[in-house]
Amino acid sequence: MTGHRTLRATLTALPLAAALGLGLAAPAGAEPPGIPDPATAKTQLDELKVAPEGSMDGYSREKFPHWIDGPDNCNTREAVLKRDGKDVQVGSDCYPTSGSWYSPYDGDTWTQPSDVDIDHVVPLAAAWRSGAADWTQEKRQQFANDLEGPQLIAVTDNVNQTKGDQTPDQWMPPLADYHCEYASMWIGSKHKYELTITDAEKSALQKALDGC
Fold this sequence. Notes:
Layout: H1 14-19, H2 38-47, H3 76-84, E1 86-90, E2 96-102, E3 109-110, E4 116-120, H4 124-129, H5 137-144, E5 152-156, H6 157-163, H7 179-192, H8 199-210
Antiparallel strand pairs: 1-2, 2-3, 4-5
Helix pairs in contact: 2-7, 2-8, 7-8
């Protein structure tokens, strides 16, 4: 299905589609760099510190400045749209004028960038609760705009909004076939930034990796 909301399958139907094997494989290049393979992800998971979630006191998205301009004057969102899309053409302002975006979370493809969100794989609020509250503003900005690790990915907007700031024990992508990859991205990002995980979070990630 392509970029028309009237043709979008309902989210409640997506798990059934995944169970029937109807999910499409993500096209090459439509994912962030630095995703650990399952064996590496298992090792990294064991290296993460397990601790209760911290408080949301003091949290604000403004403490994670994004989207910032890069050296080419394109901001981080525009850079991910270009990276994760297919046949993407951009105007002089870096905003895409054409292209398509496959969302591996739910299997939909979109032709309008307005239908696509850039997901922080580890949500900013979840990062705050697991160590980022103690970071400098500079480090939080790096985290929120990380184009070199598995932290940013283009996905269907309302799927991302359904996720919110939930951790893997509370939310996983509608396509079950993507749980392994999602868990690996989550672990890779938390490992890179030395964030903590809860017992429930670790159990959910281990279950997802066991299904790889």
